[in-house]
Amino acid sequence: LAAHLLEELNIDGEALANPLQAALVSGAAFTVGAAGPLVVGSIFRSALAQTLAILIVTVFMLAGFGALGARLGGAPLVRASLRNLLGGLIALGATFAAGAAFGVTVG
Questions:
Q1: Quick one: DSSP state of residue 75?
Q2: What burial letters (b/e) apply to 1-30, b meaning 16+ CB within 10 Å?
């Protein structure tokens, strides 16, 4: 199997990612990414202030993590940051729209 991977598909079986390590790093990244908006949201009392603070922190964190990923992966910094920011804002907007459609409100 190793010879087939290397000769036919040009994949080195020894260089494949460790699934456990990938899962742990992914879990840590999601935990760190969630901490900022949660902490900032807990500071404010009014729903509007919470929403705006969470949105602002989320925008900066999405762009920052996009830049970090680009730096670690050797990708173009601005393009990766914008891609991460745009994808995150689309997900944020879809979640907000789904909450509004089902009558779920903040506060």
A1: -
A2: eeeeeeeeeeeeeeeeeeeeeeeeeeeeee
Rounded-to-5 percentages of helix, strand, coil across the chain: 80, 0, 20
**Apex 99 CA angle, 28 and 96, nearest 5:** 60
Burial label for 62, CB within 10 Å (0-12, 13-18, 19+), is buried
Tokens for 65, please give them. 């993590």
Q: Tell me how far the alpha carbon of residue 38 is from its chain's centroid.
A: 15
Render each residue's pLDDT in the chain as its tens digit; 107 residues. 677 777 777 777 676 778 898 899 999 999 999 999 999 999 999 989 998 999 999 999 999 999 999 998 899 999 999 999 999 999 989 998 999 899 887 65
From CA 42, how far away is CA 10, in angstroms rounded? Answer: 50
Residue type (1 letter), 6: L
